[in-house]
Amino acid sequence: MLNWKSLTVGLGLLTMTSLAVADNKVLLVGIDGLQLEQFQRLDTPNFDRLNITKAYTGGIQGATSEQPTVSGPGWATILTGVWMSKHRIESNDAGLANPEFPSLFKRIKDAHPDAYVASIANWSPINTSFFANEVAGIDEVVSGINDQEVVDHALTTLSATSPEFVFLHLDDPDHAGHASCFGSAYDQAVHDSDRRLGQLLDKVESLQRQTADNWLVLVTTDHGRTPVIGCHHGNQTEPEKTIFIGSNQSMNAEFWQQISDIPNTQFNSLYGYPSQASIAPTVLRHLGIPVDVSWRLDGLPLIGDLGVRKLMEDGSSPESFTWYTAEQTPANIYRNGILVDQVYSMDRGWTDSNMSPPGVTDYVVEINNTPLALRVNNFQIDAALSKDAFKAYFFRNDLQYVRYNKVLDKSDGGYPRETNDQTWPGLEAYRDQITASFQKDLGTSYYFLKNGQYINYDNIGDKVRSGYPKPINNSTWPGLEPYKNQIEAALRWHNQKVYFFLSDGDYIRYDIDKDAVDSGYPKPINDSTWPGLGDYAQEITAAVKWNDGRGYIFLTGQRYLRYNISEDKVDEGYPMHVDNATWPGLLNP
User: What sign does the dihedral 223-229-235-238 (CA atoms) show?
Assistant: First the structure.
C-alpha cells in the first residue's frame, strides 16, 4: 500500500533541497615562497586536483607598478588587488596598508556585514601590521601558529561556522628555502604543503556534498625564488617574479590563455599571464560583490565576463597605454575617477591628450561592467644637483625631491620628500620656480628660477643665504641676463665651466673663474656642438655630472641621455626611459 505520508515528506525534502539557495564561498590558501617549477617536478597529487596557471608578481619592471618580490608587498597585492604604488606596503617591516585601497577583509564585510570572515596566518604581519585595523572588524583572526596548526584551525572553522571567506597563510616552503635553498628540505616542505592542501580540499568537497554551497578554492604564493638555487628572493628576475594561481573551478580566458601580443615581452613574456592582483577581484566576483570603477583595482577577475586585458603603458610616454581584447564593444576610459572618453575596445590603446598636472594619474578602462586600472606618474626632473661623490639631489615638478645614492645607484629610502623649509631651509617659497641648479664648490650651490632670479645656497649651513633670491643680471651673472628666463638646465663641466641649456635650443658656456659668459655664446645645440643631442635640443629639463665621467641629461617624457664627456658624444642606445630599472626610485610617488 502506498504511504502517502512518506511520499509527501520525501517530496517536501526534495523540494527544499532543490529550492535551496547556493551560497558562494571562498577559501584562499596562500603558501609562502612556493616555486611553481619545484612543485611541478614533484609528485603532488593534491595540487594535481587543481587548475593551475603560471602568473607573475613584482608588478611590471620599470613601471609605476613595480614592487619588490618579497612577502609584504606580495601578500598585500593578493589581498587588495592593487600594486605597491597604491597599497604602500614596501617591505616586510611596513606598517598599516593604505586604507584608500582596502583588503578583501574589509571589502567583504562592507558588502556582507553578516558574513563570517576569517584570517588564519603563520606569518603574523599580515594580521598584526599591514591589515591590523581591517581584521579587527572580522570574525576570526589567528596569527603566529605553524602550518599544521593553521590547517587544523581552518578545518574546525570550515565545519563549525559556515564562513563566507577564509584566508590561510602557510609558510614552510619559504622557511626551507631560506634555510637550505632548493633540495631535500624544500622538497619535503612542498610534500607537506601538498598533504595539507589535500586536507583542505577534502573538507571543501565534503561540505559541498552536505550543502548547496558553491566553494571557490584559490591557491597561490607571494613570490618565486632566486634562479637555480632558490635561497632567497626580492629582485626582478624571471624565477623570482614567477608565481602560480590554482583553482578548483573552471576559469575564464584571462586564467588559461597567455597573451603574447603585448608591448612588454620581458621575462619570456611573463606579463602575458595573469598577475597576483587578479586574485582579489576574482574573490569579490565569486561572492557577488561588484567591482566598482572607483576602487581602481589593478587585476582582472579570473571568472565571469572579461574586461580589457594586459592594460599597460606602451613605453613611448606616460600618457599612452595599450590593452588586449577580442571583445567588440565600447570601452569607457576614466581618468582619476571621471569618465573622459569612450572608444572602440578593438582600438586596443589610448593616448591622453590632456594629462593631469604633475603627480599620479589613475586610469580605468571598463568593458562588460569589468573595470581594470592602471596607475602612471607624470613626474619630471626639473633640476639636478651632484653634491659629492656619494649623493645627488633631484628636484621634481611635483614639489618633491629625491636624494640619490650614487654608489648604490638607487634612491635612498624615505624619498621623495617635500621640498620645504624643513628639508631645504629658505627654499620652500621658490620650490615651484626651480628650473636648474649646480654646485660651485663644497660651500655653495646655485638654484636658478623661472622668473629670472637665482638663489645662493649655503651647503655648510644648509640654508639659503641672506638676501636671496637676487635677479640674474650683468652684475650677478655677467652675460647671462638676456637669457635669464630661458634657462632649462645647468651642467657643471670640468675646467670650471658650466653649460646652461636654453629653452630655444641654444646653450651658453659660463666660466666660473672669470665669472662671465665665454665669448661667442650662445650657440645652437646640434650634432656638431653636442653630438647626439641635437634632436633633443628643446626637450631638455635637467642635467647633472656623474662620478663615471658622464653627464646625464633629462628630457621631457621621462627620458634621459647619457653623455660621454671624454668622447664628447651621447652614448649609443639613448635616450632611455627613466624608470625603476634605470633610475630606481627616482620617479616613485
Answer: negative
Question: Do 201 and 49 meet the contact criterion of CB atoms below 8 Å apart?
Answer: yes
Cell reading at 429 = 617659497
The secondary structure of 92-114 as a DSSP string is TT--S--TTS--HHHHHHHH-TT
**Beta pairing, strands 391-396 & 400-405:** antiparallel
Q: Is 568 left (phi over 0), alpha (psi -120 to 50) or beta?
A: left
| Residue 571 CB-half CA count within 13 A | 15
Grouping H, G, I as helix, E, B as strand and the rest as coil, residue 84 is: helix
pLDDT at position 370, please? 98
Residues 515, 475 contacting (CB under 8 angstroms)? no
Concatenate the DSSP letters of all residues of 162-194 into one string: --SEEEEEE-HHHHHHHHH-SSHHHHHHHHHHH
Q: How many angstroms separate the first and last alpha carbons of the chain?
A: 81
Per-residue pLDDT tens digits for 341-379: 999 999 999 999 887 777 789 999 999 999 999 999 888
The pLDDT of residue 315 is above 90: no
Tell me if 396 sits within 8 A of 434, measured CB to CB: no
Residue with cell 577559501: 27
**Quick one: pLDDT at residue 7?**
33
Q: Which three cell numbers stand for residue 72?
A: 609584504
Pick from 199, 110, 216, 127: nearest CA to 163:
216
Would you kindly state where each structural domain of the chain is located, as residue ranges? 22-304, 381-577
Any idea what DSSP says for residue 23?
P
Q: Which tens digit of pLDDT belongs to each residue from 258-314?
A: 999 899 999 999 999 999 999 999 999 999 999 999 999 999 999 999 999 999 988
DSSP code string of 328-347: -SEEEEEETTEEEEEEEGGG
Q: Which fold has domain 22-304?
A: Alkaline Phosphatase, subunit A (3.40.720)
CB atoms within 10 A of CB 328: 9
pTM above threshold 0.70: yes
- The C-alpha angle with vertex 85 and arms to 337 and 372, in degrees rounded to 5, equals 45
State the Cα–Cα distance between residues 33 and 127, nearest whole angstrom.
18
In angstroms, the CA 356 to CA 316 distance is 17
Q: Are 517 and 510 in contact (CB under 8 A)?
A: yes
CA distances from 370 to 111, 253, 284, 285, 328 (A): 18, 14, 12, 10, 14
What CATH architecture applies to the domain 381-577? 4 Propeller (2.110)
